[in-house]
Amino acid sequence: EADIYQTPRYLVIGTGKKITLECSQTMGHDKMYWYQQDPGMELHLIHYSYGVNSTEKGDLSSESTVSRIRTEHFPLTLESARPSHTSQYLCASSTLAGGNYNEQFFGPGTRLTVL
Amino acid sequence: KNEVEQSPQNLTAQEGEFITINCSYSVGISALHWLQQHPGGGIVSLFMLSSGKKKHGRLIATINIQEKHSSLHITASHPRDSAVYICAVLKGGAQKLVFGQGTRLTINP
Fold this sequence. Notes:
Strand content of chain A: over 45%
Distance between the termini of chain B: 36 Å
Strand content of chain B: over 45%
Order of helices and strands of chain A: EEEEEEEEEEE
Radius of gyration of chain B: 13 Å
Number of strands of chain A: 11
Order of helices and strands of chain B: EEEEEEEEEEE
Shape of chain B: globular
Helix content of chain B: under 10%
Number of strands of chain B: 11
Number of helices of chain A: 0
Radius of gyration of chain A: 14 Å
Largest sheet of chain B: 6 strands, mixed
Oligomer: heterodimer
């Protein structure tokens, strides 16, 4: 059973506001990921982390930033939200287990709407 | 061309039918994920496999590394199986997933 949590689940906010999307996992996984998914479209990796104090940008350019100060916590921040940021944001985590591949476990997602 | 292609994109079937969803990829991989996404948006990992076949309940996943192809089968399909099924590959040497566009499955009673 995966224990990865995201808050809030839904967020409607006005343009220009600063927002932080929270993601926490209790599995002790070293690797964490943020994906963005527009309705009906595939997931795109926007940020990832291989451990504390390690963050990298993903394949899809994003104006958001992330931090990894603690193993279990990987928040995503938008300094000034815009309507183009409206999307679903999914967090995932994984760890090296039984070989050289990592099964990813996903959180429930945050559906963000910027007005 | 996408590195991961799924077919069909949409599939509608009657309850009880045998379902097959296909995934082809064009890159070297270390493993392949099958994921399920329900209308609420949450994603559940169904299988991760790097060779052969795995079975869990009514779900069966197979992979042919030489042909760069994987299939997800659902036996005795049920309306609660209605969801988007996503194939994702872990590219060889990397630790990031590359996703297919998903297959929207609808099972009618």
